[in-house]
Design a protein that fits this description.
Radius of gyration: 22 Å
Number of strands: 17
Distance between the termini: 60 Å
Number of helices: 5
CATH architecture of the domain at 127-241: 3 Solenoid
Helix content: 40-55%
CATH topology of the domain at 127-241: UDP N-Acetylglucosamine Acyltransferase, domain 1
Structural class: alpha/beta
Strand order of the largest sheet: 3-5-10-13-16-17
Shape: globular
CATH superfamily of the domain at 127-241: Hexapeptide repeat proteins
Length: 241
């Protein structure tokens, strides 16, 4: 009987998220659709080919208007409602677990529909700040695989490489566990690397491409970690000696 109640709760919550997504995506589409509608009549007087070109360009411009509007909408909702995740262990289901799912769903709307166009741009950093991340200056993010944004801290001039995964949650024995991930200044997270909850990476440290940092790993100032699971190049060198 318990599984049935859980399934019904998940179904209702999922439908609520779909409804929220429909509203947010619909509102974000409004400026772009409005632009296209106001372009059609003037473009029709230009002839078939030029008119179609103008309309197609307006549709493309409308898509970018959609993406930028969506960033401010989801970020504004997160900020106004003060939906900041907190470290801790949460049963499933629980208010904390539903809050986690709701906040990540907001971010997912942008990630799935527009994120590719804002990576390595100031708009990406703006989205992260609106979603609650603590970020320094000139941070470069080149991956969509980042979650639990309000539990993320990144120092000045750090880089998250292409397709890297940074997550601040895990599911263990029926509980959702949330832990911060802290990345210092001038740190480099190599492409395709995996950073798990509770990891702390010091200033000027480097995580090599493809490395996997297990939960609660500590990377010291200027250290290089590589491998699966990742280990310090300094410690590995000592073992070889």
């Amino acid at each position: 009987m318990k599984w049935l109640i859980m399934t019904i709760m998940q179904l209702v919550f999922t439908l609520a998220l779909y409804a929220m997504g429909a509203v947010l995506i619909g509102l974000s589409l409004y400026p772009g659709v409005n632009l296209v509608l106001h372009t059609v009549e003037p473009a029709s007087g230009l002839g078939l080919v030029p008119g179609l070109i103008v309309i197609c360009i307006s549709i493309a411009a409308g898509y970018f208007l959609y993406g930028l509007t969506l960033i401010f909408l989801v970020g504004g909702i997160r900020t106004v409602l003060n939906l900041r995740l907190k470290e801790g262990d949460y049963p499933i289901p629980s208010a904390g677990a539903f809050k986690w799912a709701f906040v990540n769903s907001l971010f997912l709307l942008v990630s799935v529909t527009f994120m590719d166009f804002i990576l390595l741009t100031p708009f990406c950093n703006l989205l992260y700040r609106l979603m609650g991340a603590k970020m320094g200056k000139n941070v470069q993010i080149n991956s969509k695989n980042v979650a639990d944004i309000s539990l993320l801290e990144i120092g000045d001039r750090s880089v998250i490489g292409g397709n890297s995964t940074v997550i601040c949650h895990s599911f263990e024995r029926g509980r959702l566990k949330l832990r911060k991930v802290k990345i210092g200044s001038d740190a480099v997270i190599g492409l395709n690397s995996v950073i798990l909850p509770g990891v702390e990476i010091g200033d000027r440290a480097m995580v090599a491409a493809g490395a996997v940092l297990l939960k609660d790993t500590k990377v010291g100032h200027g250290e290089l970690f590589y491998g699966v699971p990742a280990e310090s190049a300094k410690e590995r060198h000592k073992e070889v000696k």
